[in-house]
Prior knowledge:
Number of strands: 3
Mean pLDDT: 89
Largest sheet: 3 strands, antiparallel
Structural class: mainly alpha
Strand content: under 5%
CATH architecture of the largest domain: Orthogonal Bundle
Distance between the termini: 59 Å
Amino acid sequence: MDRELESFIRYLATERGLSDAYQLSVRQSLDALSNWLIEKKIILSNVGTEELSGFLHERKKSGLSAASLRITTVHLKIFFRWLASREKLPMDPAEPLLAPRPDQTLPETLHAQEIQKLLDSIDVSTRLGRRDIAIIELFYSSGLRLSELCKLRFEMLDEKEGFIRVTGKGNKTRMVRVGSKALAAISDYLANERPSLISKRTSSHVFISVRGTPLSHDRIRQIVKQRAARAGIEQNIYPHLLRHSFATHLLEGGADLRVIQELLGHSDISTTQIYTHVDRQRLKTLHKKLHPRG
Length: 294
């Protein structure tokens, strides 16, 4: 098993070009299988569908979540398919395995009034107020991912037309609309605050630190969290929550799901469909609260 595992990891790295993080994830799944086979005194050539099902069942009993079990099942499938394709096994025992459905966890969102409260609490006359309000306005206006906002450069921003050219996951480029209030906040920041932050090290990144360097992921998370705390919002606020709120409020306003998919940069509509569950949940809550027989 160990020899085949090492060969498989090399295959993922060299032939498939998969990331170190993915290789590590696969290794962890297959190391767990290897240890289980040793414990059960089963050699690799004798592994069948029943044995793999038993391994997954024990992983579930040990407390592994449905999402983690799904990932483990995928790792087993690609490993044993690879073994069978190289005739190291007479058949693929993982082929009949069914991956468990992932838990349907609904994304958290903020109400529009809470976002307004957050924005109203930022005094643009104070140091970095213009920058921070522009960051939050842009997250909520355009639904950008944290990494996308960090990478934002002048050449990607069309202030006149109100669009940003974004390169998101999988190097896919999309055009994202920027609302009028976010555009106004960005223009105010660029004209009246960013020039005072520029240093010799400053690049064309739109959002920069007091040292003139691009803001890191952690620093932007910190900015959003600190601004929410100062606004008196007790909920845990983070950039992706603003992205969720962007999508949910568009849906509640009547936007088509395909349009929201395009704006968010989701490759699969099923990823976007989770927001319909949020909308239904709110409808149920409102109905129960407001209807005489709710």
